[in-house]
């Protein structure tokens, strides 16, 4: 699956999640627990990072070689504060462990990454199912090395990034929720040679 295909699928999944949650609850319902109250929260879970290194892909394409990077599995964590029923601020980190770069069905190298951003989260609904959108600013780090014939590109860079994404919080109790999310990490500067997307799932605890 190419990163472009993944991003399209991720966008469709987020859109379907939003519409499904909207049908599943009445946003105007005021009885029952207050799932949208102000206050702090923490999140923790697992994620998968999807990377695409354009330099290596171009070298492989020039020689008509197959190219792929396996998903990088790791963890995601965050700490945030719900400012109002429809707005929160959050610091989020996504970390991906080493993953293989393959050229012509053989291991060519390895790559790993992390991203930390400070985000604004906007909520569409405020009941037990809360679809949200995210935009944030921060930094990312990517390290990798590969071999394509006689070329041996490397990258070891930290740079400024912008996060765009969305997801869904599904409350089990008034204090505990399951979250799923996905993000496109827009790289800048020397990191713009790499495309970066993440999907994750885990638990959130509201204090």
Gist of the model:
This protein is mainly beta. Helices cover 15% and strands 61% of the residues.
Overview of this structure, please?
This protein is mostly beta strands and 207 residues long. Helix content is 15%, strand content 61%. It has two helices and nine strands, in the order αβαββββββββ. It has helices spanning 3-24, 54-62; strands at 39-53, 67-69, 72-84, 87-103, 106-123, 129-146, 154-171, 176-187, 194-206. Strands 1-3-4-5-6-7-8-9 form an eight-stranded antiparallel β-barrel. It starts with a helix and ends with a strand.
Helical residues, percent: 10-25%
The CATH C-level name is: Mainly Beta
Principal-axes geometry comes out as: elongated
What's the arrangement of strands in the largest beta sheet? 1-3-4-5-6-7-8-9
Distance between the termini: 39 Å
Secondary structural class: mainly beta
The CATH topology assignment is Porin
User: Which parts are unreliable, with pLDDT below 50 for 5 consecutive residues or more?
Assistant: 20-24
Whole-number total of structural domains: 1
Give the H and E element order. Answer: HEHEEEEEEEE
Number of separate helices: 2
Rg value: 19 Å
CATH architecture: Beta Barrel
- What profile does the largest beta sheet have? 8 strands, antiparallel, barrel
The pLDDT mean sits at: 88
Query: How many individual β-strands?
Result: 9
Strand content: over 45%
